[in-house]
Amino acid sequence: MGYITTLKVQQIRWYRRSKGLTIGTANGCFDLLHPSHVHFLRECKAELGPNSLLVVLVNDDRYCLKVKGPGRPIIPQEDRLKMVRSVKGVGLAFLFGDKDPGKWIRRIRPTMHFKGNDWEGKECPEAKYAPLHFIASDLTYTTSGLVERIQKGAQ
């Protein structure tokens, strides 16, 4: 349904050339979309500036379960995709099922790929495919922290 495909990438690249856009990419699970996610995505768009397109790659349910563990994701992939698409500044968002988004980043050919600065100094496979730009993380909210608070409140 909302999965990224080679055809969609070709359309993005055609659109980029025809409009002279700067393209940036970001990726993540975006489970329980919260203010820190919104801050990150808006800052990505702000860093790209005008005449730009932010493309967000959202991990599918299978991958989220694999890396986050039982009970995750909390929000199904299609709903997470809709929420990410609704954030002001997000131009396009797609689901992807690969462990490494590099295949899609390489094909999109962004000017930069965004990560939260909590990734600085860590291995980021995306760095092989596009220059990394780190966004100052607002860690007021984290999905894991919210899940923990909800579980404590339910006891």
Description:
The chain is an alpha/beta fold. The protein has a single domain (6-153), classed as HUPs (Rossmann fold). Helices cover 41% and strands 19% of the residues. It has helices spanning 6-19, 35-48, 61-68, 77-86, 102-108, 143-153, and strands at residues 22-28, 52-59, 92-96, 112-116, 132-135. The chain has a 5-stranded parallel β-sheet. Helix 2 (35-48) links the parallel strand 1 and strand 2. It is globular and about 55 Å long. The termini are far apart. The mean pLDDT is 92.
Structural features:
155 residues; alpha/beta; Rossmann fold; five-stranded parallel beta sheet
Distance between the termini: 38 Å
CATH homologous superfamily grouping: HUPs
Radius of gyration, whole Å? 15 Å
Q: Could you say what the CATH architecture is?
A: 3-Layer(aba) Sandwich
**CATH fold description:** Rossmann fold
What order do the helices and strands follow? HEHEHHEHEEH
Structural class: alpha/beta
CATH class designation: Alpha Beta
Query: Number of DSSP strands?
Result: 5
| Average pLDDT, all residues | 92
Q: Which percent range describes the beta-strand content?
A: 15-25%
Approximate helicity band: 40-55%
Globular, elongated, flat, extended or rod-shaped: what is the shape? globular
Any low-confidence stretches, pLDDT <50, length ≥5?
none
Give a short synopsis of this structure.
The chain has 6 helices and 5 strands, in the order H-E-H-E-H-H-E-H-E-E-H. With 155 residues, the chain is α/β, with parallel strands linked by helices. Strands 3-2-1-4-5 form a 5-stranded parallel beta sheet.
